[in-house]
Amino acid sequence: MQHKKITFIGTGHMATALIRGLIAAHYPSQCITVYDKRSEKSQALADELHLCCAETLASATKQTDIIVLAVKPDAIPALCQDLKDYLAHHPLMISVAAGTPLAKISHFLQNESLAMIRSMPNTPALIGSGATGLYANSKVNHADREWAESLFRSVGIVHWCTEETALDAITALSGSGPAYIFLVMEAMQEAAVGLGLEASLAKTFAIQTTLGAARMALETAHPIAELRQQITSPGGTTEKALAVLEDQGQLKNLFARAMQSACEQAKILGLVDTGFVEAKNEGTETK
User: Fold this and answer.
1) Helix crossing, 177-194 with 199-219: angle to 10°?
2) Listing from the earlier edge strand, what are the strands of the sheet with 92-95?
């Protein structure tokens, strides 16, 4: 990875995960600057990882090659209002603000000429096991795409989307997906307790069973459906349990409905800001 100067605006969990991933990949810490309105937070992270810490937005963005917008979606409008005057050198912009289209960010920055990448990472990136969808606008060149891909590969797997709307589906799948798995694990634990196991043992076995199943799916060449069938002996315990989940619980249909709902919500959140919606209605939105 080429050693460019990179500035993280916001020092929450995802920014911290990405920074740690970069450093683990031997990226020089002196090339990384952090800025947060809560200066004590950015200073603490800078001290821990030997990063540069900027006291102002102007100093944070001066002569930087890449800016990562690592703030919550509702902070994007105000941040862009403060940031728009410091982008004359045209840095690459990478957003990790969930559900925020690039057109919306361009609208708030009042700038259509910037190379911008939108990302949809998920929380397992915090332990280096993330899954990130990426989308680039037409201003992003091949070198910038390679750099962004290297950044997110430092915390997991990466996929480039040819259409930005695909990120809504990725949000429903991997962005929200860990919560689905946690709910299943929680349900398995509670059911095991109901069958007489101690809570601590039920938790340990629910976690290890989920981990083992995920590793089998990842490390073998078999389709997931085939792995399920291998465990399901005719007339056995698994067949009985799956019949309840599939026939009576209609689990696949339930997941389809749940993920469709999540995908639709992701699309709605992308248009929540009143100013952006008004601009769209007037036909002045950024394409």
Assistant:
1) 140
2) 52-53, 32-35, 6-9, 66-69, 92-95, 116-120, 130-136, 156-160
User: ∠ at Cα 152 (129, 158), nearest 5°?
Assistant: 75
Please tell me the distance from the alpha carbon of residue 175 to that of residue 133, in angstroms, as a whole number: 9
How far is C-alpha 199 from the geometric centre of its chain's CA atoms? 32
Same domain, 139 and 181: no
Model pTM greater than 0.85?
Answer: yes
- Supply the pLDDT for residue 228: 96
Q: Are residues 29 and 118 in the same domain?
A: yes
Tens of pLDDT, residue by residue over 56-75, are 999 999 989 999 999 999 99
Query: Domain with 216 in it: what CATH number?
Result: 1.10.3730.10
Quickly count: other Cβ atoms within 10 Å of residue 278's Cβ.
11
pLDDT above 90 (res 104): yes
| Residue 170 tokens, joined | 């990725």
Provide the domain count of the chain. 2
Any idea what the Cα angle at residue 123 is, between residues 76 and 12, rounded to 5°? 45
